[in-house]
């Protein structure tokens, strides 16, 4: 019980401190030196957070050294703190930028993590598999060159020696003379040019792989630099445009029933003037009561707009993952089919026909033959590529990233409400004018709807014959009580 009391007192104390900080930050009503120091500390904390984002962009996106990024960040923080202390508009602008930047930076960080995962696992795996396939083809060509230098020429040499021995045996013990033959054969294949071409092909393969990797790294570096810079610039411009339109245009995005509007409507009720709360069914569909958790049509549009970059990135990831899987499958099927090919048998045979003639007439005939066939494998087993698939390694981090992105999309629907509420806290006079305009607009629409309804009733009544000739088209009613 005592622990619960302590936690309750601590929660109440934190709630009081937060409300005090929130009230000082959104107004200029500092009365004591404690409130002044508290506001100064709050402005310093806000500027420090913004400076941290600036340091992250300079250090990780622009690859600035610490000798450059740290002084720039310190100067930015020191300059922004007094500006936020003395200017209410700068405080509002900084808070809105901080909220939007937090959402945008988290989204950008998650998208960067997902893209890095796809590049590290899938794209590099695709390049590695293609490189293995090309190396397998070059290995097979080298082995075929070795087979050409050994197997066919060796068989041809054996065949020629066999022919020489057969011829030599025909002249043994020949009475008119002697026959001597020395078959010393040397085989030579000029394959130096072929080896040069193989070496050039391997060098071209390595250069292509290095060029592709360098291009991938360059595009990734350019994306890391341009994406945060353009995103931050676009974010600052949109925030400045939002504040300008919020202060100058009462019609701009004025569809929220805020605390200021409810106070104004209650004041109208106390003064005996027309009030609009509670809203009817059609008005509830058009106007949003803040704070509201249930997404409306406009919030769904904001969520869709926020999720468009996420959707495009997911499509890009899916394309590269599918390409990686497709190339892996093609190489596996190709390796399997090449491994199943039977060696090619090359039939090489020779036949020697001997005949003995006496006075031009054949006396004896003898036929001899030799088989010098050989087999050649179309693709060497050891040169078959063995691809790899890193699909599971990339899907696990991508699943975590997508889960966080879905949560971020759901939170983005509340960003518009938070901006409106925060802007009204910083500019209460503008909020009252916007509330009065929206109140008058709702009343005017209600009066117009009622007038159109009465006009429709009059038109309906005017086309009825009983309205013009009541005696002729009078509807007789039966009085059941009289009966």
UniProtKB/TrEMBL annotation:
InterPro entries: CSR-E3_Ligase_Protein, DC_STAMP-like. It is found in: Membrane. GO terms for cellular component: membrane. Its main location: membrane. The chain crosses the membrane at residues 38-62, 68-87, 108-127, 225-243, 308-331, 390-411. Residues 252-439 form the Dendritic cell-specific transmembrane protein-like domain. Pfam families: DC_STAMP (PF07782). It comes from the Eukaryota. Keywords: Membrane, Transmembrane, Transmembrane helix. It is a multi-pass membrane protein. This is Dendritic cell-specific transmembrane protein-like domain-containing protein.
